[in-house]
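To close the chapter, one final illustration. This time we ask the reader to focus less on the individual chains and more on the assembly as a whole: which components sit near each other, and how the overall shape emerges from the parts.
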Amino acid sequence: MSKEITSRVTDYSQWYNDIVVKADLAEHSAVRGCMVIKPHGYAIWEKMQSILDRMFKDTGHSNAYFPLFIPKSYFSKEASHVDGFATECAVVTHYRLKNDGNGNIIVDENAKLEEELIVRPTSETIIWNTYKGWIESYRDLPILVNQWANVVRWEMRTRLFLRTAEFLWQEGHTAHATKEEAIEESERMLHVYADFVENWMAVPVVRGRKSANERFAGALETYCIEALMQDGKALQAGTSHFLGQNFAKAFDVKFTGRDGKLEHVWATSWGVSTRLIGALIMAHSDDSGLVIPPKLAPIQVVIVPIYKGTEELEVISSFVTELIVKLKAKGIAVKYDDRDTQRPGFKFAEYEMKGVPVRIAIGKRDMENGTVEVARRDTKTKLTVMQDGLEIYLQQLLEEIQQNLFDRALNFRDSHITKADSYEQFKTLLDEKGGFISAHWDGTPETEQRIKEETKATIRCIPLDNPQEDGVCILTGKPSVQRVLFARAY
RNA sequence: CGGGGUGUAGCGUAGCCCGGUAUCGCGCCACAUUUGGGAUGUGGAGGUCGUAGGUUCGAAUCCUGCCACCCCGACCA
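The assembled structure is written out below.
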């Protein structure tokens, strides 16, 4: 099957592509810029969905669904929002096809839509147009709604999971009576995201806010969590926006307060996407393939029998059947791979490629000794373990792997936040070390833009609770009150 | 959207300059021997050579248009 993958040092970006394809997560589709998410990749997404969905429900949110299509005029209502998305919108102009008489199917020019429809790149406009009808009084607030959906952004260059023309995500859209409450909500959801990414995906993040340049089109404040990939590039793993009253004003959404006065509603929106799968891959995986943290793994433990002849297999299988019951009782997702069409070595390599956290091999020798061979994916080490009490051992091992992955990523991240005090040093660090560079910035969009043009690095975020410290901007030498995190990013 | 490149079996490729219906490897199928890290042998199946047209007795090969993909820019929360 020749499933060799390119090593990370040879070509990191090819390594990434190889993992996605060879771990069977996704593939390019017949449609330009759009991917097919394969069952193994989708299983990871489903796992992410179910955990996040529970977290959203626990913080008081409900799911709903809004249309895929948005009337073009809605878009124009919020000026900065249009500017942000105009260049990457798919537009529906007709609603019918016809036969041209020569056996070709063509667009029926007589079926032109009176108003073109935009395929949603995000749903703020259609949602705020809807909320207008839901909100009259402070008693109708807050509205805490989330939707799981697909969106389309017509990107020029795409990468599986990281940037595709269509992708899956969730978008939360909330409406509040006060500014404070809306800000609190957007911060709360940022922390929900950080909690998920760190504790489930085992990827450490920096929580912060975006500079004006990087802010969401239409937001007053964009909060984000930034993660660091193994090649030293940053990846925005989630964003949460305080939208102020911008959309309420654009769609005329007002409510009557306790005091009887009419006021515009305060808004937030927040989202994470299938891009998280890209983050997962680039944070943990190695040259043998994908590495999935146990808490997100669709299969946590795979059992591979090693046998000669059906008689040996039967003995092993009856033991495994009992073991599976015990593992499931501990909540462990287990798979027994007794396919006779593949040899053990092949299976070992396959599950390594697919990132299964723990592999158990059981052969005749083990059956005689009352042992199994346990191999962990994160360290690629093997141990012989007693069958007795195996379920407890595995439960602890899975937790240990989860922790180890996080610690490893955290260690890498922390050793890749470097201070730079001059522009020369800044550029050298970017080229030679990568990672986040903590540097003083004069706070102006112009300076950020120039640094971006000259170095391809952007301000990833201004960390929350950022220590205040007097200094001078690395580019302009103007006074600065704090350092911000720069990096080259995905 | 600019500049460059590539399209040949599921995947990776040879052939193209110098025109004669296609090479090799992996994978796939069958059988046998195998099974503690990607098995081996024997046999077999699989191709509108991206697509449309042109030149020619004859086109994977030469010419033109189109499409797709890749790389570099531009663009991108």
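DSSP finds 14 helices and 26 strands in chain A. Residues 80 and 389 of chain A are 61 Å apart (CA to CA). With these observations in hand, you are ready for the problems at the end of the chapter.
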